[in-house]
Structures are given as structure tokens and as C-alpha cells.
Known about the structure:
The chain is of the alpha+beta class.
Amino acid sequence: MSKVYETVIGLEVHVELATKTKIFCGCSTAFGGAPNTHTCPVCTGMPGSLPVLNKGVVEKAVAVGLATNCTITQNCKFDRKNYFYPDNPQNYQISQLYYPICRNGKVEIEVEGKKKFVRIHEIHMEEDAGKLVHDPYTDSSLVDFNRSGVPLIEIVSEPDMRSAEEVIAYLEKLRLIIQYLGASDCKLNEGSMRADVNLSVREVGAEEFGTRTETKNLNSFKAIAHAIENERERQIDLIEAGEKVVQETRRWDDTKEYSYPMRSKEDAQDYRYFPDPDLVPVQISDEWMEEIRSRQPEFRDEKKIRYKEEYDIPDYDIDIITNTKKMADLFEETIALGANPKKVSNWLMGETMRLMKEHSIDADELSFSAEHLAKLIQMVDAKAINSNVAKEVFEKIFTDDIEPESYVKEHGLATVNDEGALRKVVEEVIANNPKAIEDFRGGKEKALGALVGQTMKAMKGKADPASVNQMLRELLK
């Protein structure tokens, strides 16, 4: 009888915090920029330079800790993690080992209708390293210190996950919490959220953990899921062949969908941690902590409950709208300007989602204002424009955030409400389409649609289809 194996997974998630300046100096944290332009003596590790802690980093770390049900370490401090690597200018990284800022948290995830908690061992603050750029033409490596000193939090989970699906659910939950807080944009493709996967397998029912490996270089949910499945199968194959799993760090190659060993954990170097002598301990008073707590937003789970109670929209719409803070904010701001929730939802779920797909952009990149969407809905309600014109105008709102009223006026798109002019066109359409009139009077409802279409064409789309339909029926009685 073949053995059944269980996968045991824990994650180390690095998140770049969305502060304007670095953790220990005033250099910009903006993504991109020419190499080594966002640098100074502190973040390039020049002798005699001294770090000064960015208060915003502490506040964002505490906010994430509170939102993930952690205990906040109100007296915490920084430590030096000593190692040599070309992108590490000081030959040490300022991190937290002994007194991390947050401990013993948990978040709830749901997979296939089943809920469970994933425990968080700790969250600590640290600085990012620089970036090595390998040039194959000159067979050399160049170093860019723009990222050096960018503030990070590392969220270390307990080994509570048992499948790739649970890992993705956990990461999505973390990402949403952090995005709702405004603590980070969590863009995996830009490296502002990165995950290392610690994975082992054991026979179902066994109490002892198997030997774990750590897989690095994972920058998308797809890569994480594939790396987990790949590593699980690799370890099971080794065990079935009577071989041992080696405790090591592995690097995932997303193109080849293959992982290879980087270094053994057996001879991992001693980082010789000791308290950083240049930084004073961080003291977080009860008052400061409560002030941070008071600024916590309404998170997705709470929004979903409230939307269901307050707005008459389907659960599917609620799921999509609350899945990003940007979309939820847009929805609520448009309603606050007097628009009907169901109509706002329809515009977001319909035209907005269609155009996002067409332009290959995420919800976070939406740039149009709630004011202009609310105005558009108001114009449709007032029959100032018809639904086809509204879609045309919305495309311009979506791409250029134009003011809809001015745009409609400039381009002559307003609905013609002159009943006399409309009656004249309808009468001409009736006179020119005897076959359609005969079909309609013979009980073929579709014939009326053709007549409405002819009228709209003659009116260059500037009529209200409902009014055209009504007038045709009256005149054909």
C-alpha cells in the first residue's frame, strides 16, 4: 500500500513599506530611477555615517501587526546581521532578532469553503539590500544601491499551511490587509512583496516534521504555486527512493519551472547578531499605539458584511469590488456623491472591468475620479444622454478622466428631447419601412427593434431608445 504524504509549509514574506524616504536616511524610496541616484553616505555604508530611524516605518509596522492580531513589542530594538555580499555596503544588515516589533499573530483564511487560522510567529523591521545587475556581455556584475535602505517588514508564519491553495489564500489575505492599510502597494512584479517558501513533507499522521527546504526568488502567485508543487513532488520522490532530503536553500527558475540548490543549511554562516550600537531602543507608548489603532481602516471582511446589509448588490459584485482598496474607495465615493449603489456597481463590474482587461491594467492603476463617474450616472438618469453615448463617454473618462458634461456638450452627444423633431423622424421611418410595419402588425415583435434601430441611426444615436420605442408603438396603433 502506497504511503500518503502531507505537505507542511511556512512562509517568510518580505514587504517594502510605502514610506517616501528610506528607513535610516532621507533618500527616496521611489521605484526605478537611474542606478545609484537615490543614495547617500548612510545607505551606501560610508564610514562615520549614522542611521536615524524613520518614525513612519515604525507606525506602518505596528499597523500591520495590529491588523494581523499580533502582540506589539512596546520596547524593541535593532540588531546587526553580519554577512558579506557585494550588494550589502556595510557588510551587515540592520534587522531585528531578539526583540521583533510584533509577535504571536494570526490571520483567517478560507479555502474551498473551509476556514482556518494561519499563525504569525513574528514581524520584524529591517533594511533592504542593494541590487546586483549581471551583465552577460561583459561577464561582470554591477551594483545599484537605490534599493539599499528601503524599509522592509518580514512576516514570518508558523508552519500551518498544507497546500499551495492555502499559501495563496494566506498571501492574498496579507496583501489585502497591507494594501487597505496603505502600508505597501504589495506589487510582486516590482519586488515590493516577496515570499520565501519553507516546505517539508511527512507521512499523514506523523508528528515529527520532515527535513525542510527554503525556496527563494518567487515573484508571482503562479510561481509560488508551481514551486510548491514541484518541491513537494521532488521531496516525495527522494523519500520513496530511500534517499534523504537535504536541508538547503533552493532558487526557483520560473522560465524552466525548476528549482536548483543555492547553498546548504548545514554549513550556514553564523550571522553574529548583536544589538546595533548606533540606534537607540524603540519605545512605543500606549498612547502612540492607540493613535495608530484609531487610524486603522475598515478591512475587506468588514466591508463585505456592510455592503451586503447596506447595498442591494450581488455577492459576486461585492467580492470583486472589495478585492482592492482602490475599487472599494471608488464605489463608496461615487455613492457618497448621490449615485445609486446598484448602478455604480454595474458600471464597475461591466464597462470598468472590460476596459481594464482591454488596457491590461489592474484596479490599483485606475485613474478616473468618482466625481466624473457619478456625473455620468446622473446624466443617464436625467436622460441627458442615452446608454450607448454613456458608454462612449465613459471610455474617455476611463482613459483621460474627462468631465462628462463638458465633453458631451463639445461633441454634440446630448439626447434630442424635441418631441416634434423625433416624431418627424419616426414618421419618416414608418413611411420608408412598410414590410417591417406589416411584420410588426402581424405579431412579430422583433420588427419593432429594426424600426427603433432605423430611427436611432437617423437621429445619429442622439435619441432615447425608450422614447423612440414608445412613440413607434403609439403611431403604429
